[in-house]
């Protein structure tokens, strides 16, 4: 059956709308629906010389039809204010969150199979007086899910994170046995069900330099991380660590692994983005719905220029299609 993927362009002053417009030129087996302001999209299309694309307004009650190149389906939501490429406007924060809410609700109500999100600027949403740390946490809260895990992935490398968008100062305190047990449960379950890995081979990073250097450079590695790894090893899973994070991403380790778990955002993501920026996707594991996203931010410098690369958005949509098909198979 044709799947329905909702795509939110994210920050209207960023490259999200440009990338979404570029989808008209691609083939997808599923139905692609942008949840966005059609007037904003038309203005951006004009600026990019893409004004021949037909924008078709849809509602979610019709049966999904495969994407037709040259057209784009739009579920209309009005921007709060005019938007100029490259210029953030806090008056559009409510609009951005409304597009997310509509997409999340549609998935929760089985009117759509997955959401793929474009990039948002977290600061401008906060500047509008709305606390917001990222899509990951927003989707978690809106789906009433106790624990989710952020994972960015390319074909060759999967990097999951034990903590997400928190200040570095708070990371060590956040690494508790309870957190790690929950993260490992979500991660291993998703690697098995969404990625078809029966016994996922996982490398787990330590927190401190050299994984604590036998306790001389910090105690969390031996006292908190190692016992959680041991629990999984006793269940027969090839989980290795805590490994020093500086060498975990060396080829000889990665060749023996399906996925990696970093303790914090900038321990794992620089490696992933260095090796695969533009062809990676971001997935929120542990949600009752499917949410994939791009590996990059709003790139305000490129908005409206036609120079933004849509590789990551294509990967994110294709992955959402695959996950939706997998989940449908599991459900039958
Ligand atoms: N999925 C998301 O919502 C998401 C992801 C990452 C960052 N962000 C947010 O984006 C904002 C800007 O973040 P940043 O400057 O650190 O990262 P960024 O990814 O926006 O930009 C980093 C560099 O990469 C370039 N770049 C980014 N995407 C590109 C693309 N598709 N094609 C070509 N070049 C591209 C930019 O021009 C810039 O030089 C921040 O507010 C951040 O929180 C959001
Ligand atoms: N941590 C992500 C990255 O660096 O690409 C990014 O900030 C987006 O996170 P959300 O998907 O939670 O918005």
TrEMBL record:
Q: What is this protein called?
A: 4-hydroxythreonine-4-phosphate dehydrogenase
Q: Which InterPro entries match?
A: PdxA, PdxA_fam
**Which cofactors must be present for this protein to function?**
Zn(2+); Mg(2+); Co(2+)
Q: Where, per UniProt, does this protein localize?
A: Cytoplasm
Cofactor annotation remark: Binds 1 divalent metal cation per subunit. Can use ions such as Zn(2+), Mg(2+) or Co(2+).
Q: Which gene encodes it?
A: pdxA
Q: Which reaction does it catalyse?
A: 4-(phosphooxy)-L-threonine + NAD(+) = 3-amino-2-oxopropyl phosphate + CO2 + NADH
Task: Show the GO cellular component annotation of the record.
Answer: cytoplasm
GO MF, one example: cobalt ion binding
Listed under subunit, the entry gives:
Homodimer.
- Pathway(s) the chain acts in: Cofactor biosynthesis; pyridoxine 5'-phosphate biosynthesis; pyridoxine 5'-phosphate from D-erythrose 4-phosphate: step 4/5
| Chief location bin | cytoplasm
């Amino acid at each position: 059956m044709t799947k329905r993927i909702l795509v939110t362009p994210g920050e209207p002053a960023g490259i999200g709308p440009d990338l979404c417009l570029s989808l008209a030129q691609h083939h997808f087996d599923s139905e692609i629906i942008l949840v966005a302001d059609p007037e904003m999209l038309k203005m951006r299309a004009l600026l990019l010389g893409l004004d021949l694309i037909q924008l078709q307004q849809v509602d979610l009650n019709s049966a999904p039809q495969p994407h037709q190149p040259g057209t784009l389906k739009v579920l209309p939501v009005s921007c709060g204010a005019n938007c100029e490429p490259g210029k953030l406007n806090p008056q559009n924060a409510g609009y951005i969150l409304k597009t997310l809410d509509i997409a999340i609700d549609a998935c929760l109500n089985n009117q759509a199979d997955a959401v793929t999100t474009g990039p948002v600027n977290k600061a401008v949403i906060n500047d509008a007086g709305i606390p917001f740390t990222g899509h990951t946490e927003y989707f978690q809260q809106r789906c009433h899910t106790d624990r989710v895990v952020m994972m960015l992935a390319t074909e060759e490398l999967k990097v999951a994170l034990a903590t997400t968008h928190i200040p570095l100062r708070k990371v060590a305190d956040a690494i508790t046995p309870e957190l790690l047990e929950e993260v490992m449960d979500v991660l291993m379950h998703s690697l098995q069900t969404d990625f078809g890995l029966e016994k996922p081979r996982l490398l787990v990073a330590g927190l401190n330099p050299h994984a604590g250097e036998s306790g001389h450079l910090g105690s969390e590695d031996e006292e908190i991380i190692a016992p959680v790894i041991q629990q999984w090893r006793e269940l027969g899973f090839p989980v290795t660590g805590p490994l020093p994070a500086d060498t975990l991403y060396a080829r000889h380790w990665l060749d023996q692994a399906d996925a990696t778990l970093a303790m914090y955002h900038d321990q794992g993501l620089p490696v992933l983005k260095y090796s695969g920026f533009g062809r990676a996707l971001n997935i929120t594991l542990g949600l009752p719905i499917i949410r994939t996203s791009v590996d990059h931010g709003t790139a305000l410098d490129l908005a409206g220029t036609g120079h933004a690369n849509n590789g990551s958005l294509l990967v994110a949509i294709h992955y959402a299609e695959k996950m939706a098909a997998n989940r449908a198979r599991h459900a039958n």
